[in-house]
Design goal:
Elements: H1 2-31, H2 35-38, H3 53-60, H4 64-94, H5 99-113, H6 117-130, H7 137-161, H8 165-173, H9 178-189, H10 191-207, H11 210-215, H12 224-230, E1 232-233, E2 236-237, H13 239-272
Antiparallel strand pairs: 1-2
Helix pairs in contact: 1-13, 3-13, 4-7, 4-10, 5-7, 7-10, 7-13, 8-9, 10-13
Length: 275
């Protein structure tokens, strides 16, 4: 029986690996094929000769480096901005003593998460157009920060709830001010949770398409998702260039999770377990 269960676990894990990594493998292989080899039959699961033409087109002709820089700048600034705001709003909500107002605020934040993005697109575009803030990277960054505050605050509150208030009271008894207590004791203890918040905010902003398509119109302001979407035209899909773009677009998120993996796991564990 134990042998059977072990075999089943191996089979299930193997199937999961195939379904999870199979599409990624195919995207990488397609990005290294020439246009004729992509449409060749029978299908080749590895290119006869590695072709870097799709990547050359991506950076030399399609101006992808500019799109990449725009996405990276917006994602970093918006993620840090959302993290900074939610860090203090989450702490305030965690230490708020009145239960009824706290529940109302939490319910309001949860409600914002169930509203589909497309329902906000028309009024948002109209409001920004009136003040001349369309096709503006600063405006898009502010929109992303606003979008991420509620979710980030909810997560931050969960992490701050894990820190006993008695620890802060002891620090203040020893002569620390409220600000010193937060900066020197509370925030260092919640660094894993803050790393998790930053990572999720960064990935969500990096991959966001609909708002960027709606608000950005000029080529030099495009982000990576908008650029990838532009490779799909009425004449067809440039599969090689699109695959190369997807591979490059995956790199920042992979790097973020690689460096923050330990903190993310600890942070999510701390935020999920109640004391």
């Amino acid at each position: 029986m134990k042998l059977f269960l072990r075999i089943m676990k191996i089979l299930l894990l193997g199937m999961f690996m195939i379904f999870a990594l199979g599409p990624l493998y195919w995207v990488v292989v397609t990005s290294l094929k020439g246009s004729q080899e992509i449409y060749a039959f029978p299908i080749k699961y590895w290119p006869a000769s590695i072709n870097w033409g799709n990547y050359k087109y991506l950076f030399n002709i399609s101006n992808f480096a500019v799109y990449f820089k725009n996405s990276l700048l917006i994602s970093l600034v918006a993620s840090i901005g959302a993290l900074f705001i939610s860090m203090f709003s989450g702490y305030a909500l965690s230490r708020f003593r009145e239960q009824r107002p706290k529940m109302i605020l939490l319910l309001a934040m949860y409600f914002t998460q169930i509203i589909p993005t497309y329902m906000l697109m028309s009024p948002l575009f109209t409001s920004l157009a009136k003040v001349g803030m369309t096709d503006n990277l600063v405006a898009l960054t502010l929109v992303y920060i606003t979008m991420m505050i509620a979710f980030s605050t909810i997560m931050a509150k969960g992490f701050f709830d894990r820190i006993p208030i008695a620890l802060e009271e002891a620090a203040m008894t020893d002569g620390c001010t409220k600000t010193q207590t937060i900066v020197k004791i509370v925030i260092p203890l919640t660094l894993p949770g803050l790393a998790a918040i930053f990572s999720f905010a960064f990935v969500n902003i990096w991959n966001e398409l609909f708002l960027a398509v709606m608000l950005l119109s000029s080529d030099h302001n495009m982000t990576v998702p908008v650029a990838l979407n532009s490779f799909i035209s009425k004449a067809g899909v440039s599969w090689g260039v699109l695959s190369a773009g997807i591979v490059v677009a995956l790199l920042p998120t992979m790097i973020v999770f690689a460096f923050a993996q330990k903190y993310i796991i600890v942070g999510l564990t701390e935020g999920a377990v109640k004391g």
